[in-house]
Amino acid sequence: MRNYLLILRPSHWIKNVFLFVGLIFGGKLAGPIDEVFVSVGRAVGGFCFWLFF
């Protein structure tokens, strides 16, 4: 069971929350659709990059 918890890497959850909350408070989810896709893509990229390291 402990190994499964280590795989989930809960220490990185806070960082990932800040990535996506920044989109909301930065107003990046409202506006032209191409800018929204770029902003969400960057947040997902940051999430996925640290997911594997």
Mean pLDDT: 81
N→C terminal distance: 21 Å
- Helical segment count: 3
In the predicted model, the low-confidence regions spanning at least 5 consecutive residues are none
Q: What is the helix content? A: over 70%
Roughly how many Å is the radius of gyration?
14 Å
- The SSE order reads HHH
Q: Strand count, sense and closure of the main sheet?
A: none
Q: What does the overall shape look like?
A: elongated
Strand % is under 5%
User: How many separate domains make up the residues?
Assistant: 1
Helix/strand structural class: mainly alpha
Query: Looking at the chains present, what oligomeric state does this protein adopt?
Result: single chain
Number of strands: 0
Question: What structural keywords apply?
Answer:
elongated; 53 residues
Describe this structure as you would to a colleague:
With 53 residues, the chain is mainly α. The protein has one domain (11-51). Helix content is 74%, strand content 0%. The chain has three helices and no strands. The protein has helices spanning 2-8, 13-25, 33-51. α2 packs antiparallel against α3 (33-51).
SSE layout and pairings?
Layout: H1 2-8, H2 13-25, H3 33-51
Helix pairs in contact: 2-3
Summarize the structure.
The protein is an all-alpha fold and 53 residues long.
